[in-house]
Design goal:
Elements lengths: L3 H22 L3 H21 L5 H13 L3 H9 L10 H20 L9 H10 L4 E11 H13 L4 E6 L6 H15 L3 E7 L8 H9 L3 E5 L18 E5 L3 E5 L17 E9 L2 H15 L8 H4 L2 H4 L11 E8 L7 H11 L4 E5 L7 H12 L3 E6 L6 H8 L2 H6 L3 E5 L4 E2 L3 E4 L3 E5 L5 H6 L2 E7 L3 H15 L1 E3 L2 H5 L3 H13 L4
Parallel strand pairs: 2-3, 3-4, 7-12, 9-10, 10-11
Antiparallel strand pairs: 1-7, 1-8, 2-5, 5-6, 6-7, 8-15, 9-13, 11-16, 13-14, 14-15
EC number: 2.7.8.-
Keywords: Cell membrane, Lipid biosynthesis, Lipid metabolism, Membrane, Phospholipid biosynthesis, Phospholipid metabolism, Repeat, Transferase, Transmembrane, Transmembrane helix
Protein name: Cardiolipin synthase
């Protein structure tokens, strides 16, 4: 078989066949049905009385189990488990703590890196533990081809190591071009570590991965899912996209590795995305995020020590003299954290807006708190503008987006559909034209609660923030403003799709 996806499909088919065979072979299937219904009641009772998730999510799961007998229960067992109950070994925790202590000490020893000017960055520091760092050269890359060529250029300059993590890595022309360059770098003696999400990159062929390993590239899946029956973490994915080169240069944002991100696609006329190139101290924060992902699922005692003992090459503290001095704060979080770090940071900066809030997101499915925060800001006189795709990549996500439009419009929020022949995949936000965020984080419940994400908070006034503001204005020029009159004319079919998508969005 070509890849894990084919294995998973085969396993599912065999399971379904086995169930039907069992029902046919035994005439006691009524007892089995009663058992499954009792199990559903027990699971529902646990969900109501003991599970800590929010009430909206609980209600959606209960409705799914009620309206989709058996299927709803199976989906909950596969996708709905409480991610914070996952158990990690003492070795895993020790490695994580060792890396965290090393990074904390590193930044403590470089106090001149800490940006102390912004009050807001101090608030986010208390929320996340990560300070805003000064002395960075930042480049906002709003075109996929431009971003990819810049990545290739930086990879060619690597002198010691290249670290890559992608939620989606495809073995197409784009993925192969980068893979061949990575093989060349390994042949030059450069360390290359490539990590990919076990579900997002399901399609990667075994043979292709084996070729990378044979060339000397360290390849590792993040939470590989072998089958739908054996996985306990199918729904908790690592959605980050980041590359770190020699600990000095980092790339992060919304772009995965595949042809469509360079607009090589028949489905859309153009793929609009945004990445951020970082050169300077903030790249070390991205390095820390990558290494945390790399070592967290290892069982070796010295997994973290391998990197912390070689601090001069993995965590350099001297950078070439920078012509620019921009402040950047890297925040990251995931489903295993006790607090929703990026979600809370978004709410904090939105709550501090005094003039304007500008958001572009391909998947806009806010929870109750974030929706209320945006509505309250608009109703208090702050101009709120939100750009979402005019054409979706998936029906469920598209109608999930549009299901919130009425609630936004009634609060005075301006909503825009991006070019209906293209696809908006950029994930960025601007507050008062003075602060901007770029990252892997969508403005949706999956990014806020279920995914591992990373976002950069850039503080202005700065050239990069001004560039991102210009990019938003350009995106607006390619967008159509949604009106309540247009909404009133939508079909019954669309209204039903929106209602269903909104209802089930807490499960996604």
């Amino acid at each position: 078989m070509k890849n894990k996806l084919q294995q998973m499909i085969l396993t599912t088919v065999l399971f379904v066949i086995s169930v039907f065979f069992f029902y046919w072979l035994f005439d006691s299937f009524v007892l089995l049905t009663i058992f499954i219904e009792l199990l559903t009641i027990l699971v529902a009772s646990y969900l109501i009385f003991f599970d800590q998730r929010n009430a909206t999510s609980k209600f959606a799961w209960l409705f799914a189990m009620l309206m989709l007998p058996y299927v709803g229960l199976l989906l909950f067992l596969l996708l709905g488990r409480n991610q914070q109950k996952r158990r990690f070994s003492a070795t895993q925790k020790k490695n994580h703590q060792q890396l965290e202590r090393h990074l904390a000490q590193l930044f403590s020893n470089q106090e001149h890196w800490i940006a102390k000017e912004q009050t807001l960055s101090k608030e986010l520091y208390h929320l996340s533990g990560n300070a805003a760092l000064r002395g960075n050269v930042l480049t906002s890359l709003s075109d996929g081809e431009q971003a990819f060529q810049q990545l290739l250029s930086d990879v060619r300059q690597a002198k010691h190591h290249i670290h890559l993590f992608y939620f989606i890595y495809k073995a197409d022309e784009t993925g192969n071009e980068l893979a061949e360059l990575l093989k060349e770098k390994v042949a030059q003696g450069i360390e290359v570590r490539l990590m990919y999400d076990g579900v997002g990159s399901f399609h990667l062929p075994f043979e292709w991965l084996d070729q990378l390993r044979a060339a000397g590239i360290e390849v590792r899946p993040y939470d590989l899912v072998n089958s739908p029956l054996l996985s306990t973490r199918l729904n908790w994915r690592n959605h980050r996209k980041m590359v770190v080169i020699d600990g000095e240069t980092a790339h992060m944002g919304g772009m995965n590795l595949g042809n469509e991100y360079r607009s090589i696609t028949d489905k859309f006329s153009y793929w609009r995305d945004t990445n951020l190139r970082i050169k300077g101290p903030a790249a070390l924060e991205v390095q820390g995020v990558f290494l945390n992902d790399w070592i967290y699922f290892e069982q070796e005692e010295n997994a973290a020590a391998f990197f912390t003992d070689q601090t001069t090459v993995y965590f350099p503290t001297t950078f070439t003299e920078q012509e620019e001095d921009e402040n950047c704060q890297i925040l990251f979080g995931g489903p295993y954290d006790k607090e929703r770090i990026i979600h809370d940071a978004f709410m904090d900066v939105i709550g501090k807006a005094t003039k304007s809030i500008k958001i572009a997101s391909p998947y806009f499915v806010p929870d109750e708190e974030s929706l209320s925060t945006l509505r309250r800001a608009a109703r208090s006189g702050i101009r709120v503008q939100i750009i979402i795709p005019g054409k979706g990549d998936r029906a469920l996500s598209y109608f999930g987006n549009t299901s919130f439009i009425d609630s936004l419009l009634t609060a005075g929020i301006d909503v825009y559909f991006y070019d209906k022949e293209a696809f908006l995949h950029a994930k960025y936000m601007i507050i008062d034209d003075q602060l901007a965020t770029i990252g892997s984080t969508n403005f949706d419940m999956r990014s806020f609660y279920l995914n591992h994400e990373i976002s950069a908070f850039i503080y202005g006034p700065s050239k990069t923030v001004a560039t991102i503001v210009d990019q938003f204005n350009e995106d607006l020029s390619k967008s159509e403003r949604v009106t309540q009159k247009q909404r009133a004319k939508r079909s019954i079919s669309q209204r039903v799709k929106e209602k269903l998508s909104a209802f089930f969005s807490p499960l996604l």
